[in-house]
């Protein structure tokens, strides 16, 4: 019994010990359980984060693929446009051009009215089947290639047999294509102007009064040949002088007139009673006056007067060197327009001129500028504050920045004076080929009544810090020492 009781007690003690151990371990299990719960609570978040990170990576990968596909598509479209669409849109074959030709002596002028710009290397010119060298082709008005709309090209045909055809051939692309052609005529030999014979004055006669027998009526005198045909009277002063000659006209008719018409003999007309007209070019002109009377039964012949304009005697001068040069105020340049494509740019606007226009350029302030008149053309006339007159009517004033007159009928100048202050080491100039002008540093050289020389050239330019150059005709010159 005692042993059994001892065993039970031992078991009871062990149970209490185990129970005690369990009781001691319980707080740790609670802590662990709390930790485990917190771990279990955080695990789903990490799993969710892993699940969310995985789709973002896929979206980025998809976006990159889409961008690559888009770039490839755009490149394909560009290549298709370059190789397929652009050739279809670009015009095939030679360009279509519109040109207006004119001829002055041996020179052919082509005014480019419309069409694309033409590069020098893409075209060539033939005359009668022979190619014209580049040295005989020049852009007018100081323009450079490409040849564009509104510009003029000059072709020198001297040395070629004519009549012949000038062909403009387009060489760009496959083969060669003719895009324009025009005839070139031989230079006509001028014929002398016949001297007009004076028209004899009509002899006025009257019919004799005749009596017929057996008739009481008397035949009336015919007065048709007795009409006073000198009812129109006018005066003109002076009728002789050196170019440019300004003449004052006066209508001295005493009978009532409805309309009046002056013809000055050079293509210019007027309808005022006391007109003033300037003849810029040498020659003999026949001026006339025609009237329409208030009484239609009054008749009169149109009287005429001859106006004689003498040329200026100029000397050829070549002068250049270090110094400053200025043009005096008040000089004038006259010319008549011969062909199409002529323009003047004044005040920033282009104005086209008509064939036969009489143009006058007034150098109001003078100053520094540039003049280039050569080969029957005015390619440069650049001055500030000038006035343009066309057919004796004031047209516009401003800064003349460009002039493109590839051919003129006549040209003249008046009162253009150039003053030059000489710098080191002085100036020497040729007059009619002789070294006549000599000026020391500080002296002034004055060129009076400047115009074109015997070859038709007038060149004047000023180089910054380098001096000036002049070639042209002058009436006289002076070398003075300013005070």
What does this structure look like?
The model is unreliable at 14-54 and 190-228 (pLDDT under 50). Strands 17, 19, 20, 21, 22, 23, 24, 25, 26, 28, 29, 31 and 32 form a 13-stranded antiparallel β-sheet that branches. Helix content is 18%, strand content 42%. It has 1 helix and 33 strands. The protein has one helix at residues 2-89; strands at 98-104, 107-114, 123-127, 130-131, 137-139, 152-156, 164-170, 177-184, 234-237, 240-242, 245-251, 257-263, 269-270, 276-279, 283-293, 304-310, 315-321, 323-327, 331-337, 343-346, 349-352, 358-363, 370-374, 377-390, 393-404, 408-414, 418-422, 427-431, 434-439, 444-448, 458-463, 467-474, 476-480. With 483 residues, it is an alpha+beta fold.
Task: Tag the structure with descriptive keywords.
483 residues, alpha+beta, 13-stranded antiparallel beta sheet, 1 helix, globular
Bulk shape = globular
Structural class: alpha+beta
The number of helical elements comes to 1
Average pLDDT for all residues: 79
The proportion of residues in beta strands is 35-45%
Short recap of the structure:
The protein has one helix and 33 strands.
Secondary-structure map:
Blueprint lengths: L1 H88 L8 E7 L2 E8 L8 E5 L2 E2 L5 E3 L12 E5 L7 E7 L6 E8 L49 E4 L2 E3 L2 E7 L5 E7 L5 E2 L5 E4 L3 E11 L10 E7 L4 E7 L1 E5 L3 E7 L5 E4 L2 E4 L5 E6 L6 E5 L2 E14 L2 E12 L3 E7 L3 E5 L4 E5 L2 E6 L4 E5 L9 E6 L3 E8 L1 E5 L3
Parallel strand pairs: 10-16
Antiparallel strand pairs: 1-2, 2-6, 3-4, 3-7, 5-6, 7-8, 9-11, 11-14, 12-13, 12-15, 15-16, 17-28, 17-32, 18-27, 19-22, 19-26, 20-21, 20-25, 22-24, 23-24, 23-31, 24-25, 27-30, 28-29, 30-33, 31-32
């Amino acid at each position: 019994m005692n042993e059994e009781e001892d065993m039970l007690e031992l078991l009871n003690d062990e149970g209490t010990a185990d129970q005690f151990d369990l009781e001691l371990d319980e707080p740790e299990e609670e802590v662990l359980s709390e930790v485990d719960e917190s771990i279990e609570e955080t695990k789903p978040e990490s799993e969710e984060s892993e699940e969310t990170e995985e789709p973002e990576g896929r979206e980025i990968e998809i976006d990159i693929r889409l961008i690559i596909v888009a770039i490839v598509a755009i490149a394909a479209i560009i290549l298709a446009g370059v190789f397929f669409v652009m050739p279809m849109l670009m015009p095939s074959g030679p360009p279509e051009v519109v040109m207006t030709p004119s001829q002055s002596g041996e020179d052919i002028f082509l005014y480019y009215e419309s069409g694309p710009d033409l590069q020098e290397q893409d075209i060539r010119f033939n005359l009668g089947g022979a190619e014209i060298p580049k040295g005989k082709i020049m852009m007018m008005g100081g323009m450079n290639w490409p040849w564009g709309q509104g510009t003029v090209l000059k072709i020198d045909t001297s040395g070629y047999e004519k009549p012949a055809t000038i062909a403009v051939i387009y060489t760009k692309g496959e083969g060669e294509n003719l895009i324009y052609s025009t005839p070139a005529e031989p230079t006509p030999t001028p014929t002398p102007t016949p001297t007009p014979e004076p028209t004899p004055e009509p002899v006025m006669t009257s019919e004799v009064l005749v009596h017929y027998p057996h008739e009481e009526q008397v035949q009336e005198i015919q007065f048709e040949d007795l009409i006073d045909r000198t009812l129109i009277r006018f005066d003109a002063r002076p009728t002789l002088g050196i170019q440019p000659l300004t003449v004052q006209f006066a209508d001295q008719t005493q009978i009532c007139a409805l309309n009046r018409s002056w013809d000055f003999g050079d293509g210019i007309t007027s309808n005022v009673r006391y007109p003033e007209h300037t003849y810029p070019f040498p020659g003999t002109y026949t001026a006339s006056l025609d009237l329409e009377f208030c009484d239609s039964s009054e008749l009169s012949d149109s009287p005429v007067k001859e106006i004689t304009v003498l040329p200026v005697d100029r000397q050829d001068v070549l002068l250049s060197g270090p110094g400053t040069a200025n043009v005096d105020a008040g000089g004038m340049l006259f010319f008549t327009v011969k062909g199409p494509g002529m323009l003047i740019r004044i005040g920033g606007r282009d104005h086209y001129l008509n064939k036969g226009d009489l143009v006058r350029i007034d150098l109001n302030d003078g100053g520094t500028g540039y003049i280039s008149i050569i080969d029957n053309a005015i390619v440069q006339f650049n001055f500030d504050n000038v006035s343009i007159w066309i057919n004796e009517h004031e047209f516009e004033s401003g800064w003349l920045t460009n002039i493109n007159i590839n051919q003129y009928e006549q040209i003249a100048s008046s009162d253009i004076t150039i003053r030059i202050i000489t710098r080191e080491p002085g100036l020497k100039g040729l007059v009619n080929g002789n070294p006549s002008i000599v000026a020391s540093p500080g002296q002034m050289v004055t060129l009076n009544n400047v115009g074109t020389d015997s070859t038709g050239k007038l060149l004047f330019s000023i180089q910054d810090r380098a001096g000036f150059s002049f070639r042209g005709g002058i009436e006289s010159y002076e070398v003075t020492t300013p005070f």
